[in-house]
Amino acid sequence: MSSISILHRACLRLALLPLPPLRARATALRPPPLRRHLHLPHRSAMSTAASRLSHIAAATGAGGGAAGESNEPPPAGPAAAQEDDGLLSGDMGYRLPPKEIQDIVDAPPLPVLSFSPNKDKILFLKRRALPPLSDLAKPEEKLAGLRIDGNSNTRSRMSFYTGISIHKLLDDGTLGPEKEVNGYPVGARINFVTWSQDGRHISFTVRIDEEDNKSGKLRVWIADVESGEARPLFKSPEIYLNAIFDSSVWIDNSTLLVCTIPVTRGSPPQKPSVPSGPKIQSNETKNVVQVRTFQDLLKDEYDADLFDYYATSQLVLASLDGTVKPIGSPAVYTSIDPSPDDKYLMVSSVHRPYSYIVPCGRFPKKVELWTVDGKFIRELCDLPLAEDIPITMSSVRKGKRSINWRADKPSTLYWVETQDGGDAKVEVSPRDIVYMENAEPINGEQPEILHKLDLRYAGTSWCDESLALVYESWYKTRKTRTWVLSPDKKDVSPRILFDRSSEDVYSDPGSPMLRRTDMGTYVIAKIKKQDGSTYVLLNGMGATPEGNVPFLDLFDINTGSKERIWESDKEKYYETVVALMSDKTDGELSLDQLKILTSKESKTENTQYYLQTWPEKKQVKVTNFPHPYPQLASLYKEMIRYQRKDGVQLTANLYLPPGYDPSKDGPLPCLVWSYPGEFKSKDAAGQVRGSPNEFPGIGATSPLLWLARGFAILSGPTIPIIGEGDEEANDRYVEQLVASAEAAVEEVVKRGVAHPDKIAVGGHSYGAFMTANLLAHAPHLFCCGVARSGAYNRTLTPFGFQNEDRTLWEATSTYVEMSPFMSANKIKKPILLIHGEQDNNSGTLTMQSDRFFNALKGHGALSRLVILPFESHGYSARESIMHVLWETDRWLQNYCVNSASKADSDSVADSENKTLSASGGSAAREALGPEGSSYLPRSLLSNFFSRCS
Whole-prediction pTM value? Predict the structure, then answer.
C-alpha cells in the first residue's frame, strides 16, 4: 500500500465510497483534505464479496425495492423452483437459490451514517434491498468511458437512499430520539446528501420514478436540521441538477454552487441516418500510442456531440433565501472547488478535441481560477489530449496535475509537475517537483518550489506553516517515503521521516489523524500533553505475525519517539480508530480532552461504534445494530498459516458451518475462493494481513453463503506471485499459482475439515483468471471451478493487464503461458463461467468468457456459460444475483458435493472428452441436462465501460 493510500485510509475512513458521494467541497475522487462533513467508513474487502458490514453501502451501486421487500414474485411454477435441478425445455427464466441462501441475501440493509461537521448530530440514511432488474434495463448512453442515464442526466445505475433521519449525539455519547426529514415526495430517490458548514442544514437531491419506469431529473432540496422540514432549493421547477461529473458544493452556510442542466438546452442531437463520411484514425506522424483495453469510448462525431449534450453544465449560485445567479458560460465542468476562505473557485473542465481511444479523464483539461461570484481571474493550465501516457506503472500525464488548495491557508494553491515527461522508464532526478503559489500572485511572483522528489508524488498532508508531510512512491520497487517539510520556513531543510517498502505492512507506522479547521478543511491534528510537549496522532493498522492490532500513537515529529495511548483488544475483538471527534477548535488539542470514534467487532459480533474519551478512557456504545444473519451467528472462523514448498508463508481464513463437529461430521465439501496478488519479496508476501477477530461479513455474492449449505470455506488464501530483483512476477505465474494452491489444499485436508475429492475453486475478475488457470494446470487439486467476470486470453489485452506493464510483444511467452485460453485443451474438470453482458471493466470484456467457453466446448470440456443481461463487471439486480447463486449452488452440488472419487471422475472425464470431441459437443448438453445450453442469446457490444480517472 502506498503512502497516499495509507493517508487516504486515515482521513477517508469516514467517507462513503460506493454510493453516490455524500460530498463536501471536493470532487468524489480527490485526495484529502476532506471538508465540511464526515461519514462512517466503507469497510469492504476489495473484491466482489461486497461489504463486510451490512450497514455500509455495497460496492455494486444501485439498490432496489424497499428494505425487506422481495423484488421477486412468490415461487410459482418451474421457473421459480428452488431445488429443482433442471429447467423445462425452452424455459430460460431466472432461478432462486435455496431458501437458506435467499434469507441471508434478502436481509434488510442497515442505514448508512453521516456525522455533522461539529460531530453533534448523525444522519441515518436509509437504504432499500437489492434493486430489480428493471432498474438496470433502463436505457443508458455509453460515452467517453462513462455510462449515462439520459432521462435523469446522471451516471446510470446510481444507488440511492429512501429516507433520512436525524439523531443528536448526546453529551454522554448515546443517541437522542429519531427525527425524520420530511416534506419531499413519497417514493423519492435521494442522493448527494451534504452538510452545510455550520451543520444547520443539509442539501440533497430528489428524483421520482416517472411513467414507463423512467427516473426523473434530479432536483436539489434543503432540509432544516433542527425541524427536519425539507423544501426545494430552487423556486423554479425547471432547474435540474447535472450530475455527470460534479454536483453541488456549499460555498458558505447559506449558499450552494450547483451544476445545473442549461435551461436553454434543447433535445438531444439526432444520429444522422447517413454518415457524413468514413471513420478515420491516423498515425501518419508515427507517434507511439499504447493504451489498455478501455471500454465505452466515443465512436464518432455523433457520440462526441451526445457527450457534450449530457455533460455540459451551467454553474448556478443559489442562496437559501431563493436568490439564483448563473455564473460563467456553459461548459463540461468536471470539478468545482472553493478555496478555504470561500473567496475563489478552482474550476476544471474538459474540452475538444476528444479521443476515440481513451476515456474522458484524458481529454484536454483546463483549470481556471475565478472569484466566488464567477469573475475570471486567470488560467492555471490547459493540458492537451493525453493519449500517449505510457502503460508502465507510475507513469502519469504531462503538465500540472494534482492541483489543490492548501488546507491550512486561506487561498494558496499547490500542484506537481513531472520532470520525466510522465514516462516511468525515463531515468531523471528529480522526477517530480511540487510547487505552490498564492491564488493571486503579487507583483509578478513566480511559483515557489515546495519540494523535489526522485520518486512519483503521492500526496500531501498539511498542518501549519511549520509542518507538512509529502509522500512519494515507486511501484517498480514498492518504495515509499514520507518527507517532513516546514512549508513557510526557508531555513528548515526537508528531511525523510519514513523510508520503507509499501509491501512491508509490519513496518507501517500509521497515518496522521486530521482535525477540522474553522474554514472546514482538514489538517494534521497536533496534540499537547500537560507538560507542554506537542505530538501528532498516528493511526495504524498494527500488522503483526498474529494479525492486525490497530493502534493510536502519540508521535514526536522531531525526535521520532512515540507513545501508544490506545490499542485494540487483540484477545477477542478487532477494534479500529474511525475518527477524531474532538476537532472543533483550531490550534492544538489537549490530550485530556481527546475523543475518538472506534469500531469494535469479533468473530461472532457484528461491528458497533463506540465513543472513547480521555483522560479516563471511558467507552460509550453509540450504535446497536442487529446481527445481519443470526442463522450463521455461531459459525467458526480461524485465521490459519501454512507454508508453500518454496518456503513462503501463506495465510487464509477458514470458515466452518455452525454446529460442525469434525469428529462426528467428518471432512466437508470445501470452496476455495481467492484473488492473486503481486509482490517483490518472499518476506512481504508471507506477512499476515487482516485480523483473526474480524467479523465475517457476507455480501450478496460472497462465498461464505455456502456455509449455510454445509461447506467449509477457505476465503482469501494468499496467492502471492513474487518477482524478486529484476525478475517479473508474471514470468513464473503458473508455477507460483499452483504451488500456492497445493499448499492451501494440503492444509485443509491435513486438518480433516475438507474432503480431498470435494474441493472446488472460485474467484471473480482476476480470481476467475486464477480459477481457470488452476483447473488447467492443477487438475489434481480441484473437482470443479466457478469463474465470474474473468479475462482468459491475454493476447486480447496486448498493452498490459492487472499489474503487468510489459506489452504482448515485449513478453510474448508470458502472455501466452498465463492465458488459460491457450490451455483450454487441458481443462478436464467442470467449470462454470458467469459474466455480465455489459462488463465495464478494462480488460474483462464479455467476449473473454464467450471465446473461452467456445474453446472449452471445442475440446469437449464439461462447461457452462451464463451471461447476465444488463449486468456490468459486478452484479447488482436481485434477479441476477439470485440466479448467480442458484447456478453456483447447482454447480457445487452436482460437481463437488455429489462428485465421484478422483479416479472415477478422471476416467469419466477422459471418456466424455472423447465422446464430446466426436459428437461436436451435444453430449455436453446431455450431461448437463436439458438446461445445458440455456444461456440467453445476445449480441456483443463493441465498446465497453472504463472509469474516467
Answer: 0.86
